[in-house]
Amino acid sequence: MQHHLSETEIQNYQLKKITPDQLLELDDHIQSCELCRNRVHQKQDDISYKWLRSELRTTGENSDHLSYDQLENYIDRRLDSVDLENVQSHLNICNECTTDVNELRSVQSELHNKVESRKLISFWRLPPLSIPLKLAGAAATIAFFMWAATLPMRNEIRDLRKQLAEEQKINVSLLHERKALQDQYAEIKQPLPNSQALVSLNDGNSRIEIDSNGKLSGLSQLPESFQKTIANVLTTQKLNVPQFVTTLIGKKEILMGNAKKSNPFELLSPVGTVVMSERPSFSWTAFSGSEGYRVYVLDENYNDVASSPLLKEIGWSVPTSLHRGGNYIWQVAAVKAGKELLTPVPPQPEAKFQILSADKLNEVQHLQQGSGNSHLALGTIYAENGLLDDAEREFNALLKENRESVVAKKLLLRVQSFRHITPKN
Amino acid sequence: MEFPESPPKIDNVLLPLLEINEQELRPALNEILVVHAEPIVRRIVRNRITNPDAAAKDTEDLHGEIVLRLLTRLNEFRIHPEEKAIHDFANYVAVVTHNACNEYFRRKYPERSRLKKKLHYLLKHQAMFAIWESADGELLCGFQKWRDRKFPIRTEKFQQLKNDPQSWKSNVSVGGELAEFVDRIFMFLQNPLLLEDLVGISATFLNVHDSSLEYDPKLLEQFPDTPKEEESPVDQIAYLTRLWSEIQQLPLRQRKALLLNLRDNANSNVISLFPHTGVASIREIANALEIAAPDFAAMWPDLPMEDARIAGLLNLTRQQVINLRKSARERLARRMKDFEENV
Question: Using a CB-CB distance cutoff of 8 angstroms, which residues of chain A are in contact with residue B177?
């Protein structure tokens, strides 16, 4: 619009008696033409301005701090998404309430650590009433003392038994692995004619082979350096999973006293892995009788990053993008009879994951393009970038196409067994 | 999608305010405050202030603050009876009074107030402790097994603890964690006590005290309340530009709750200020609201929008929209205060 606005146009704009298209057209002109903007300016605008300014001043003077209930529900993660947004918004601007939150978190953490020891303290403080009671008390105390003295030992025995059972399970899987290796060794030991395939796998629409000279065929579209990597994977059946992934694989916490807690339901994915999407999808098992679920996502400093509304399903995707390269922790609360039952809780390990960094994402996408539908190539790319869920899926698919292949079995086993590695402190 | 809501219920006590003229307003407000609000306010304030030394001044200050809050709200109700409806005035007065007391004590005794919150949390979350309401509606606390006791018992031990804490202190060490300390208090008293009393005792033992916040009247005289000069259009633009930038930083739902219902006392659409001053065009406002410009232009004549309609757009309840807007205003108020102080 080149010309200045007519009086009628100004009036129509002010009275909003125009179509949406006209409104946008006139407004575009008003924004670029100071003269017309001054003509649009009304007395009402001055009144509105004064009101706005005074309103914000009054709000500032009378603004409330967070109530105790808001603080408690925030600490205990019981706020719905709107209240959570409001509380976080307030905390961004209020140092006093932030201090309150930190103080309450310190009490929460104290409670978490000292529950059992406090019970003992209370017991020993019971007031003595009379001599017979004292004697009876003394006898009971001795009995209790003996019981209490052996309690840690008995707990330790129980824990050791449990640990033994777990170790035995791992042992069985290692024995299987050993058997598979022995079979493979026997296979390899057989004399081979020159250029006979050392490993041969059906993979998607093609057949991948590596001969006794280490020559790979079937993946010629991949960069040469990556072909070498695949050849190495096939001959050694070792996957180069980055070491940092061990930090995502949680370790059981050790609690004082008889901390017998298990998760009422399980978090399925993503747990102890890198994920490609900035908006990962979470899944977990159902909890019987639950009225719904809430998902909480925290960053590695335990700051709230995202939370879901009350969900009926056992899956949810983060609606906003998470930070690439960032480490995150997630928990699910099952709501039952108005109460939230969180999982995982100590001593169970935290459910951690990392969002694939931007530069790694480029690398992965580049290699994905050259891999076509090769499960072997994709599984290797994913494993080498810590994308363990994706790697497991691909090696599973590879095994389906090669039921009898020791190599396919071993690669899948490698990815699965990586998750049993205990991270270092 | 819109969710039609039934008109909000209004407490019968307040109905006269909607039917009278300006001359009759003052006596009507007076009657509502004296007959229906005062008894509730006095009862709550009397129960909340336990320190006799501070009682007179605290009561006076608090009373003034509560009456001001009630008057402000009643005035808003007269202007926007639908939006600011109060369906249970007695309950509203009680809530306002408790909130005002909390805020007052928080301001005046911040450390003690923080200690109270920590104790409250501890009592509620530690399985062996409990916090419950007494027969008088006060908060009692003690061991879980005492929950059926409905009154605090101020035994000799309690008096000893309160009047001569040093003797108890010398018998039992006060170090360690808060839970252990509370456990010792309960073990010693063998009776439930009021939360306020526990806070008082704990504050003494744990050396939690607030410095006095009394102002020297001479200091205040150095800052006469001089009215500011009339603002120039440039100042207005600077203020609105900063305000717009702060609005854009609000979370989306808060932005929508605020901008779609930005109205002044005369029910005028305040959002027009932004395009009229060239601070933000209609397209930019649409963009900030993540609404397509033609769709927002179609909404423009309907602004300011009723909360029920905004609730429908956001798939929230009307109360959630009100809470989002309140939060947005508080955040903007703080940010703009910083801006004004630095200009």
Answer: 110, 114
